[in-house]
TrEMBL record:
The lineage of its organism: Bacteria, Pseudomonadati, Pseudomonadota, Alphaproteobacteria, Sphingomonadales. Pfam families: Glyco_hydro_67C, Glyco_hydro_67M. GO terms for biological process: xylan catabolic process. Residues 427-650 form the Glycosyl hydrolase family 67 C-terminal domain. Keywords: Hydrolase, Signal. Residues 120-425 form the Glycosyl hydrolase family 67 catalytic domain. This is Alpha-glucuronidase. One of its GO terms (cellular component) is extracellular region.
Length: 655
């Protein structure tokens, strides 16, 4: 059944000439003796055979020519970057040479070859060289030990802690294949809001089973650690990072992990954020806390320390807090510490400017944290392809020596996973594309969204060129449509409290001021928007001068950040000649018509996509059409209750 379980690894049978060509070749993975017992190579060969068998489909009819795939996986010619590969015509023979410095490179090369073949490429002309742009390409699971996934919209957790270590769900292997196919090489298996008992020996045994299963796929396992574990499970009176007993406890804990999992990746820590314990509870800094753990793991692993911190005590602007706490610590973090920074300064909104910490800590390794699961973009029911959003951040010029992609290149990218127990893994077929895109962009941030959308659509849905064209267009326009009907022109955080699904811009009276949508839109009778310039919170000053200069003037700022940085009169004239109010309403209406266009385009694809998935997507689009209107109508009704303005001429009727 086409229920989406196979993700982009469907290897749907080729047709026509592409099939003739592949079926006419008798493929031989040629593995040198010293590699035959290498589990990663075994995985690569098995995938190659599975993929090609499936691409050819029915039994072979054509006469066959021998075609070797020469595995040359200890070859430094490709450059020493782990995971790099080259695929080229075998000199003096019919076949391909797959060259890599390590087994991982051969595995990635195998998946790249299969991708090319799935796209209909003639194997005899495949010619590829590739190396990952950054060492860490991770998924962070916000999965709890009881099976609930925080911000998960695809069912229960895929990790079966109850039955591990004895029982390993076959799904763990398919999960590893999917990750390896897009270059993901690190997985944090539990929520950053961590339970300390997940550091106990009974869990370490479960991690060992998973790590052993994933190792051949080049995936290292990481665990989120609760900072107060020395007290929670260790019987100590304090978790002060400078206390010798605390340090010894973590050292012993790390040793325990490494005895079971020799290539254990390390710990991910959310500290002093949203009620989590941390070093500041003892008047110590983030650096004190991170460095203590870094010492415990030593050169065996990495501490990934999150910069997502804010508290109600900062009344001026929550968006400023991370920069304020972390930037003064630049240069104080140990070499094996990475600071993980969300793409924007607030919290995974449909659009935010890039986080000002990028570029501001030249002596610290920074990693980009993105959210694949769509907490603020309509969960798994709205279609929003996120590659354009991530590229927007990766390509942003920090004004301090490079783009965000360049700043994070020495460390990596993490995506908060959107996987769950649903048959289709991600809660909807199109959400699989976001998992795919995260891996592809972490491997190569210069890949265009269009390329990613197309190659995903071909592998996932169909090779019919018109259909691919249509699907790619739907995907490429989708995120902007969500921005338009939810939070246009730089607005943010207008979602209902807690669950974050649907609009609630009218909520103004929550105890935590920075949880109120009113805190973010600051709308009143005269205008709307958050003044983050010098006359307001001055969050703008956290950016490099060249960037701040571009955004300081409401007349010249990129329109999509207007209300993020400025409070603007409803009647102010925009470049279009329209007032802000008119333009805002137009954005909502445009968002709706874009969703309608997606639904219509999809209806036209009934013949090109299998009925099961066609219907599933169509049903989600119907939900999205209704909810885009809900967002638009609720928002407009609320803004009008403040500004008393009539509906602009030509706009759809008022709610
Ligand atoms: O996006 C917010 C979420 C929380 C999450 C937090 C974080 C894991 O609403 O559910 O907690 O961010 O990133 O720590």
């Amino acid at each position: 059944a086409e229920d989406g379980y196979d993700l982009w690894l469907r290897y749907a049978p080729l047709e026509g000439e592409a099939r003739e060509i592949l079926a006419g070749l008798s493929l031989h993975p040629d593995v040198p003796d010293e590699l035959v017992s290498d589990p990663t190579i075994a995985v690569a060969v098995a995938e190659l055979e599975r993929g090609i068998g499936s691409l050819i489909g029915e039994s072979r009819t054509t006469p066959q020519t021998r075609f070797d795939i020469d595995f040359d996986c200890r070859n430094e010619d490709v450059g020493g970057i782990p995971g790099a590969y080259r695929i080229a015509r075998l000199s003096g023979g019919d076949g391909l040479a797959l060259t890599a410095p390590d087994s991982g490179g051969c595995l990635y090369g195998t998946f790249a070859l299969l991708r090319e073949l799935s796209l209909g490429q003639d194997p005899r002309v495949v010619d590829l060289v590739s190396a990952p742009a950054m060492p860490l390409r991770m998924l962070n699971h916000w999965d709890n030990p009881d099976g609930h996934v925080e911000r998960g919209y695809a069912g229960r957790s895929i990790f079966d802690w109850w039955h591990l270590p004895e029982r390993l769900d076959e799904r763990m292997i398919d999960y590893a294949r999917a990750n390896a196919s897009i270059g993901i090489n690190g997985v944090v298996v539990n929520n950053v809001n961590a339970r300390a008992f997940m550091l106990e020996p009974r869990y370490i045994a479960k991690y060992k089973r998973l790590a052993d299963a994933w190792r051949p796929f080049g995936i290292r396992l990481y665990v989120s650690a609760r900072f107060s574990a020395p007290q929670d499970i260790g019987g100590l009176e304090t978790s002060d990072p400078l206390d010798p007993a605390v340090r010894a406890w973590w050292k012993a804990k790390a040793d325990e992990f490494y005895r079971a999992v020799p290539d254990f990746g390390g710990f991910l820590v959310k500290a002093n954020s949203e009620g989590q314990p941390g070093p500041q509870d003892y008047d110590r800094t983030h650096a004190d806390g991170a460095n203590m753990l870094a010492e415990a793991v030593g050169n065996r692993g990495t501490i990934i320390w999150r910069a997502f911190v804010y508290s109600e005590t900062d009344e001026t602007d929550r968006a400023k807090q991370a920069y304020a706490e972390f930037v003064p610590l630049d240069g104080q973090f140990a070499d094996n510490v990475i600071i993980q920074v969300k793409n924007g300064p607030l919290d995974f909104q449909p659009r935010e400017p890039f986080h000002p910490m990028f570029g501001a800590m030249p002596n610290t390794k920074l990693m980009l944290e993105t959210q694949i699961t769509k907490e603020y973009l309509g969960f798994a029911s709205h279609l929003a392809f996120l590659a354009p959003m991530w590229s927007e951040v990766l390509e942003a010029e920090t004004g301090r020596g490079g783009t965000v992609a360049e700043v994070v290149a020495p460390a990596g990218i993490a995506g908060v996973a959107n996987t769950g127990s649903d048959r289709n893994w991600s809660g909807s077929d199109f959400d699989q594309a976001n998992w795919y895109a995260l891996g592809r962009l972490a491997w190569d941030p210069s890949l265009s969204s269009e390329r990613i959308a197309r190659e995903w659509a071909v592998q996932t849905f169909t090779r019919n060129p018109q259909a691919v064209e249509t699907i790619a267009k739907m995907m490429l326009d989708s995120r902007e449509a969500v921005v338009r009907y939810m939070t246009p022109l730089g607005l943010a955080h207008l979602m209902a409290t807690g669950h974050h699904y649907g609009p609630a811009p009218w909520v103004c009276d929550l105890d935590r001021p920075e949880w109120n949508p009113c805190y973010y839109h600051r709308a009143d009778a005269d205008g709307i928007g958050f003044d983050r310039t010098a006359s307001g919170s001055n969050a703008l000053s956290q950016y490099a001068d060249s960037v701040a200069a571009r955004w300081a003037d409401p007349q010249t700022i990129d329109r999509e950040y207007l209300l993020w940085f400025h409070h603007v009169d409803w009647n102010a004239r925009m470049h279009s000649g329209q007032t802000l109010w008119e333009e805002l309403v137009r954005e909502y209406d445009r968002g709706i018509s874009e969703v309608d266009a997606m639904a219509e385009a999809w209806n036209g694809l009934a013949a090109a996509v299998d009925p099961q998935r066609h219907r599933a997507v169509a049903e989600n689009l119907a939900i999205q059409q209704g909810e885009a209107r809900w967002w638009r109508n609720a928002s407009i009704a609320y803004w009008r209750s403040l500004n008393g303005l009539p509906m602009p001429e030509g706009a759809a009727p008022p709610p």
